[in-house]
Amino acid sequence: MSNMNRINIRVTPSEYGQIASRAKQAGFSISEYLRRTALRERDGPTIIVDEGVLKDMLRNLKGAATNLNQIAYVVNSRHKPEELLPELRHSLARIEASSDAITKLITDARNSI
User: Fold this and answer.
1) CA–CA separation, 109 vs 113, rounded Å?
2) Measured between alpha carbons, how far is 11 from 15 in angstroms, rounded to an integer?
3) Which of 26, 80, 90, 104 has its CA 20 to 30 A from that of 70?
4) Using one digit for the tens of pLDDT, what is the confidence trace for 56-93?
5) What is the C-alpha to C-alpha distance for residues 108 and 94, in angstroms, rounded to an integer?
6) Residue 112 Cα to chain centre, angstroms
7) What's the confidence (pLDDT) of residue 9?
8) Taking a C-beta distance cutoff of 8 angstroms, is the pair 22, 34 a contact?
9) Cα 46–chain centre separation
10) φ, ψ for residue 85 (rounded to 5)?
């Protein structure tokens, strides 16, 4: 570390809080976050996505996929798809809601750039 140079910057308490929060969200120390941000190949904002939101979206899609798989199994074995129509509609609604949430996440990320 003796070959490292130090850079001191002045920030307001509010700016410090914002930097610290962004560094934490990105999983970096403040120094590492500022270093990576300053040395980025292209200038522009860093898109930070809440991991919990992504996990919820994935869980919803997996649940809907499991439901659809079970429905397909029953249809193939019983040949009575009309009995499963309510479950099918529910699964498709979950897939649509997850798809809409992912689309919104991507759109918001693009608009923040």
Assistant:
1) 7
2) 6
3) 104
4) 888 888 888 888 888 778 777 876 777 777 877 888 88
5) 21
6) 15
7) 92
8) no
9) 14
10) -55, -45
